[in-house]
Amino acid sequence: MQCDKLNTKTAYFVVHLFVQISKELDRFSLSSEVKQVVLDCIWPRQEEVRRSLVLRTAAITNSYLKDFDWKVKVSINDST
Length: 80
Description:
single chain, 80 residues, mainly alpha, 4 helices
């Protein structure tokens, strides 16, 4: 079930990405043939493109725990 949700989210992401790329190519007034060739070249590398975008997005900020409220941890431990 979790894998199905992940595949659905990934598929949505890929479709959204290609729509955005298509819109971006429209800004350059490219012919539909050229636009299709670009999309056809990117399609087989969709997982690589997605991974690259995720890594670049994650690199924007540090994704580690800077501070932890130990009181919360203690109260959780005390209540069990």
